Amino acid sequence: MILADLPKLNASLNAISVILLVTGYYFIRKRDIAKHKLCMVSAFICSIAFLISYLVYHYHVGSKHFPGQGFIRPVYFSILIPHTILAIAVVPMILRTLYLALKGRFKEHERAARWTLPIWLYVSVTGVIVYLMLYQLYS
After folding, report:
1. SS3 label, residue 58
2. Domains of the chain by residue range
3. What is the CATH topology of the domain spanning 3-136?
4. Residue range 110-117: average pLDDT?
5. Sign of the CA dihedral 94, 128, 9, 5?
6. Residue 26 to residues 36, 45, 78, Cα–Cα distance (Å)
């Protein structure tokens, strides 16, 4: 794997996280706690792998400017800006939600997860969209 492959890896890790998060939600709704836990811990691991890969890529390459022009430019930034803000905000939320589950504080875990899950999903989905717009549509 070369440095240029990392954005595709990052998008793949985000997409896998989306699948794991949705599947984990499905399992908790079915009260299958073991499968829910497996999915959520796996999503957490994918997100950590994403963050490491993302930081390595941007450390070596820097930022990539969006080359699109016209109406697509404000569309891109209307996705990127909340994605970036929420990506920062969701990290402590994920850590707290995971901590509460690991400590067996399930009522608090459930309350935290009601906020954490949709934000985590949003960040993961928009991460894939940002990748597609930045590296696929205008490459």
Report:
1. helix
2. 3-136
3. Four Helix Bundle (Hemerythrin (Met), subunit A) (1.20.120)
4. 98
5. negative
6. 8, 19, 30
